[in-house]
Amino acid sequence: MVYLTIFAAFFNKSHYNKVNKKYEAQINEFMESIKVRNGHQPEFLQAVKEVAETVIPYVEENPKYKKAKILERMVEPERVIMFRVPWLDDKGEIQINRGFRIEMNSAIGPYKGGLRFHPSVNQSILKFLAFEQVFKNSLTTLPMGGGKGGSDFDPKGKSDNEVMKFCQSFMTELSRHIGPNTDVPAGDIGVGGREIGYMFGQYKRIQNEFTGILTGKGIQYGGSLIRPEATGYGVVYFAENMLHTRGLSVFKHSVVISGSGNVAQFAAEKVLELGGKVLTMSDSKGFVHASKGITREQLDFIMELKNVRRGRISEFAEAYDDVEYHAGKAPWAINSDIVLPCATQNELGEADAQLIVKNKVIAVSEGANMPCTPGAMNVFLKNKILYSPGKASNAGGVAVSGLEMSQNSMRYNWTREEVDEKLKGIMKSIHEDCVTHGKENGNGYVDYVKGSNIAGFIKVADAMMAQGVV
Ligand code: GLU
After folding, report:
1. pTM above 0.70, yes or no
2. Among 269, 382, 394, 453, which one has the highest count of C-beta atoms within 10 angstroms of its own C-beta?
3. Which residues line ligand 1 (CB under 6 A)?
4. Domain total of the chain
């Protein structure tokens, strides 16, 4: 009996065991070869493993992809660019940062993906993000390949002048490698409207060309309405689609949100608009808990605090008596119906996921890229929680970036309502694709991880097959 229990516990460890057992050897062999080349890149290996576990069984059953070595080609970036970024700080001292652009896959369109400015940035993190971006962009239905870039530069604590100097130096080199039909970067952590503006100005000055080279631009110079809101709104639209499969909606439900940056802010805005209750938000130093729900006025305070004053979320708790601050903690222990992790990769671990399941959470929808660890993801899938990976549920941001590119090409602007309608339509279509490829036989549970990986893979794989060995 004891042995049986131990065996059962071991067997159940991975949700994918049922599917995987048959193809375990192929998955292990594939991952071994990836480790040999990328052993020192843990985040990249994590992202590849998650895809391999669901896509390899599909490839084995569709041998044309196996013969063409599509997955083997997809894990190798088409190009990795790394460069020096020297700049002068306000004291006149020389500072040196590292710049990167990973051009991962251009089978279905120009490389597309954000730039991240954060001290943690390295090749592993950017390769994981670029790899995820290939699948995410494919899911949007728009013609965009995958890429990602950034720098270990930390905009926190820097003056506007220093940020401008850095952005100009960064773009001076990056401008040689990008173009409206080649590679179109955008924002990510640490890169918002201010940074995009400085980089756009420098590109235009160097190339003497006004072109849609970046997305997330200001509305006065080619930006799209709804682009700032798109990732956060999209996460909530996706969660709505998931909830509808169980006859539910965000309305009247309580929501735990992590993060307080662009994604978290607009996810919170949409939850409030739909009649839900936002209980928490956070930053890297701790989280705030408003047990009665964050009000619209309080959200405006947070937006001003984070976007203009660039302060700490603790200051929000200091300003309101009914808000508690928990230093050094993430908000996962707070009881809620819906959880939206919107901060950063690997912020929610296996023990957190167990707590979330114990609290009877209905849905977990990722706003950040890979915020749940593999252990956490398996806990959600095993317990049949509605769970969506970032590459599906946070695709709204890059989707509206794609719409910004379309508007730039047409030299025309759609209204707020038009862009929002298209965004809603795209999130619905991503959800449908996930259901098509992720619905389990028998119980009807939708595995959105499997669904998004396979749906994202097929479009890129077919394009690669058509284009030959390139
Ligand atoms: N950085 C965002 C993402 O993770 C947006 C990328 C873009 O708009 O190109 O998808």
Report:
1. yes
2. 394
3. 112-114, 136, 186, 188, 215, 369, 397-398, 401
4. 3
